[in-house]
Queue: 2 jobs
Job 1
Amino acid sequence: MRIASYICEKASWWNEAWPAMRQTVLSHFQVESLLAARRAGRPSASVSLDLELTIADVTLEEDGVRFPDGQSLTWQDLEIIRASERGCFVIEENTPRKIQFFSEQTNQLYSLMPTKRAPTMLISGIPMHRVKGTDPHADTLEKIKTIAPITGYVLDTATGLGYTAIQAAQTAEHVTTIELDPAALEVARLNPWSQSLFENLKITQMIGDSFEEIEKFEANLFARIIHDPPMFNLAGDLYSGEFYRHLFRVLQPRGRLFHYIGDLESKSGRVVTKGVMRRLEEAGFRRVSPRPAAFGVIAFK
Ligand SMILES: C[S@@+](CC[C@H](N)C(=O)[O-])C[C@H]1O[C@@H](n2cnc3c(N)ncnc32)[C@H](O)[C@@H]1O
């Protein structure tokens, strides 16, 4: 598979398929600010309507709040959002709808969980980014930093909310990102922090199993690979010697791989890391070395 052909395909259809989305999305963090303004008797409040990316003015009324797009929510609706510590809500037709999708394909529930900055995605309750002592945005920067500078063609094997793909696309020539479950992309589509995934023409999305899709790429295609799979016991194939041999094959000579694993110093992390490093070396990678701050390892071809 060549990159140039599907960049052109994408350019022709993406505008229709992915209309610009600028919807109001709230979590308990923003609702706390609205309730505080009400308690203080203010007529309006400045809060974020896109999970802390920007700030907008919201009018406080007797029955509830009115947003700049004309939609409104009652104080009771806002209490529902405030009570949900692990949920984000999109406001549609004056009603809050929790951002979550059940996938019949994988039997998993995908949802958006707020933090004080970028949200993470939960897959059946498990966060897909680090949130303790850091946040998903800082977590993404740590991962990307390990294989900087990000140049040329980049492969991102697990799209999720698209944070690694979006960050890589800032300096890469092109990013190809693969996601197994369309339900994960439904969540991303409603996440204000993921919009560039659908708007940046340097990013090509593929839906499929990376374990299978990797076979379709020609050898020596990518200058950088970001491998950020779910944890070992949820996606064993993506930690196998067979998959690593394909990663090695599609990476350019002198290319770099970052492989997220999890806390390298935890009991299970130590065991998984040892096996990952051994199999990467067996697949041909050299200078395989741990990057504990990024919860992963790097390797060179
Ligand atoms: C840890 S998250 C990736 C986070 C992402 N890098 C980001 O920056 O938001 C892992 C993602 O891999 C997806 N996934 C799981 N198995 C996969 C597979 N075999 N091929 C492609 N994607 C897979 C999951 O659905 C999930 O969205």
Job 2
Amino acid sequence: MNVSFLELSRQYLAIKDEIDRAMASVFSRAWFILGKELEAFEQEFAAYLGARYGVGVGSGTEALHLALLACGVEAGDEVITVPNTAVPTISAISFANAIPRLVDIDPATFTIDVQQIEAAITPRTKVLLPVHLYGQTADLEPLLDVARRYNLCVVEDACQAHGATYGSHKAGTLGDAGCFSFYPSKNLGAYGDAGLVCTNKPEIAERLRLLRNYGQTRRYYHATKGFNSRLDELQAALLRVKLHYLENWNTHRRELAKRYNALLQGLPVTLPQEAAWGRHVFHLYVLRVPERDRLCSFLAERGIQTIIHYPVPVHLQEAYRDLNILPGALPEAEKAAREIVSLPFYPEIREDEIDLVAATIREFYR
Ligand SMILES: Cc1ncc(COP(=O)(O)O)c(C=O)c1O
């Protein structure tokens, strides 16, 4: 038996009738951009999060880019974030003509080491941008405290954390803006690109609505220089269907993670750790393994697919040489990049597949 990292078709087949009906109703209404499906989804997702506003945009990258602009980021401003993220987190900062300032991570949760933030603040710092990686949030309370003391905005990258919590708050709702990606493989995934920014601030929501739609206040009247970045009606309609399942899928992800944990207990690997501050929704199930590359080859030879999220920290990417951050400067992120491996994991994975992956890892260590 082979085990794929992800088989998205299983989810579609499980809810096919509902999805097909939702698609058909958009086709027959024939209204595809900025319509009633998006309006409804924005309200429903914001209500799910416990935020006042949701503004649908074209992708997670665009959510971050437009959120930074809506928070007033200008050319040359600095944004503090981490190097171990999907590169689009950093692209979004570049799109806003701002400068990423990278700080190292807490090795237990792979999220920003809040103790290191203050030392990275300069007079140009405008935003703190924590990344809620793999399905759990960064330690937000101390981060928000720094933001308050230095008068900085907080833009949360919640692209991997739909439904994760910090205390009783959902990821994305504690900062000035929370950014979500609905890339197909996410805990809540579209069938194409889509994203959303949530906020409790009416002025940020208003600015986002302008920025995503050419800066228009009404048709052909442009108050600001904007973009084309909209979550279309087809994606909104299917996201509305899937939103009903998100809590169940997240709960099941947690059960499957427990199963992996139990089966891998006692091996010389570090299991994912759930921080005391919140609820992990396991977008990914990530192990730390010193002999990671040998393990991945061993699993691949036996038909088990794994992925590394992410193999090269941003500051060591060719495209970001201009950050002038040398190897060794962010040691925890660099060490993590050498040791992490994401195992096959999604709500529809079968228990016998998890059992086989775990048994094959055990075999590797025998
Ligand atoms: C942490 C993180 N930030 C940003 C993004 C960008 O989202 P998108 O692919 O929807 O542009 C992603 C997803 O790829 C992500 O995982």
